Amino acid sequence: MLLEARNLSFAYPGQPEVLSGADLALATGERLCLEGANGAGKSTLLQILVGLLLPQVGTVVAFGRERRAERDFHEVRCRAGLVFQDPDDQLFCPTVAEDVAFGPLNTGHSRGEAAAIVARVLDELRLSHLRDRVTHKLSGGEKRLVTLAAVLAMEPQVLLLDEPTNALDEPTRERLIGILHGLPQAMIIVSHDPLFRRSVATRSVRLIEGRVQAVDDGQRDIAHGPRIARQS
């Protein structure tokens, strides 16, 4: 397994538990959709998996190792890329190119190497025309695709996507579905959108009363079509 949450319990200060014995596992090649009501703890679970929050009870196992302290999660955050629900929480550089380059530059790549990564990722996502745009002037859909590009620039093994279709129009939503089908990474995708889930999921689970339950709704094999080859 790439990522495992084992018996996680978590509560924010002064609040009741949002996770209460939650278990979740992501295998190679899966696009696992996580659904649940508002406030069920879906975003919390994603943040625990990459160490942005630490559970009061339970264990995270990532890439074959148990992770407990902050130092344990440095590697995890390089290998598992989290795309936040609100793009404005993730985009902070003046231009698109600078935002996409930020991760590679901060993981030891030279400026030339980072520039090549930016060019490749923007080209693969058909976002090259946005390269020099000011990020805060992008549309909501453009910002969402740029946050995905910034995470893919880190070449992660796993993608964690929190409500990726929020504020997307229909063409951009369909474009995102095509992009996700073409990516090799295993994914955990939080989404309220049932049509989107059925379009991308290889497996679905639901978070109810702090625990993860299987969903048997016929989604398992719907998304197994030929993958779109990534450009090299």
From TrEMBL:
Keywords carried by this UniProt record: ATP-binding, Hydrolase, Nucleotide-binding, Transport
Annotated Gene3D superfamilies: P-loop containing nucleotide triphosphate hydrolases
Pfam families in the cross-refs: ABC_tran
Annotated Gene Ontology cellular component terms: ATP-binding cassette (ABC) transporter complex
Molecular function terms, GO-annotated: ATP binding; ATP hydrolysis activity; ATPase-coupled transmembrane transporter activity
Enzyme class, first EC level, given as a word: hydrolase
Domain of life, source organism: Bacteria
Domain ABC transporter: 3-232
E.C. numbers: 3.6.3.-
PANTHER family in the cross-refs: ENERGY-COUPLING FACTOR TRANSPORTER ATP-BINDING PROTEIN ECFA1, HEAVY METAL TRANSPORTER
Family in the record: Belongs to the ABC transporter superfamily.
Protein name from the UniProt record: Cobalt import ATP-binding protein CbiO
Gene responsible for this protein: cbiO
